[in-house]
Amino acid sequence: MKTPPPAGTLVRLAVVGCALLAAAAAGTGCRGRDGKWSWKPLSAPSPKAQVDMAFLSKDADTRREGVVLLSGHDWGLKEPYLEGYAKLLKLDEDALVRCVAARALGKAGDPKYLPNLLAALDDPAPTVRADAAEAIDRVLPRAQAAGQTGPAASPLAAHALGDTSVDVRAQCARVLRHLRGVETLRTLVRCLSDREFAVRYQAHAALVHLAGRDYGYEPDAWEPLAERGLPSTAPAEPVKPWWDWMGVTTKDKPANAASSAPADGAGR
Predict the structure, then answer these.
(1) 210/125 same-domain check
(2) pTM, entire model
(3) What CA–CA distance (Å, rounded) separates 73 from 264?
(4) Which of 82, 132, 186, 267 is deepest in the core (most CB within 10 A)?
């Protein structure tokens, strides 16, 4: 039979437990960049406080948290806050702040800020470039619907082929599925030779999305289509055997790619 702990020990444990419960009720702790712990209330700051955090604070962590809080509201995804995110994306000295600013613009989806996101593809921080590319993926379709795509293909192609970050190359290859030009096809075919599978995977998925056919992962199989171009109408979804949930087979063999590629303007 085990001996119960002394009464004094039980009292001390009860006191510690009550203190922890009180602290949990009052707020939550987080460690800052300096390694020190600080306690913050569980209730969200007021809207004015969130604006001040995002745009007026001298602390980068506070600015980042403010942008995250603001972009969680519908009203925080409208002007004048979008203009503020765009300025943070371009000018803030902290990469994490620029990251959340790019995400906020992507979440808002306003085509007006597509040029800002395209410019962020040249950010020195690869994390910012990756977040900018992901945001472009969300904004570009709306920009196309509004006729405001501008020179999106060139920077996306440049980073899909030459960015030092595999995440950025893969994400840019993925975004190119929204663009149907011949240069886009040629870029994606070149991406099939990337040394990283993540880039090849996204390039292949984009090509299948654009062409409506799957010629596999070999660049040579896609060359005829890249030279010929896509039809003016959107392709049908590629057909695969019912059991091929991993996409290990193709409807057309690579050897038949040239003969089965659709002519310009031809329907499905």
Answers:
(1) no
(2) 0.74
(3) 45
(4) 132
CA distance 82 to 85: 5
Long-range contacts of 107-110 (CB under 8 A, 24+ apart): 107/71, 107/77, 107/135, 107/138, 108/71, 108/77, 108/78, 108/82, 109/138, 109/139, 109/142, 110/82, 110/139, 110/142
Q: Domain residues for 231? A: 165-268
Reduce the DSSP state of residue 38 to 3 states and report it: strand
Whole-number Å distance between alpha carbons of 10 and 39: 27
What whole-number distance in Å separates Cα of residue 215 and Cα of residue 206?
A: 12
CATH of the domain at 92: 1.25.10.10
- Give the 3-state secondary structure percentages of the chain, helix then strand then coil, rounded to 5: 60, 5, 35
pLDDT in tens, 40-93: 556 789 999 999 999 999 999 999 999 999 999 999 999 999 999 999 999 999
Domain boundary among 150, 173, 196: 150
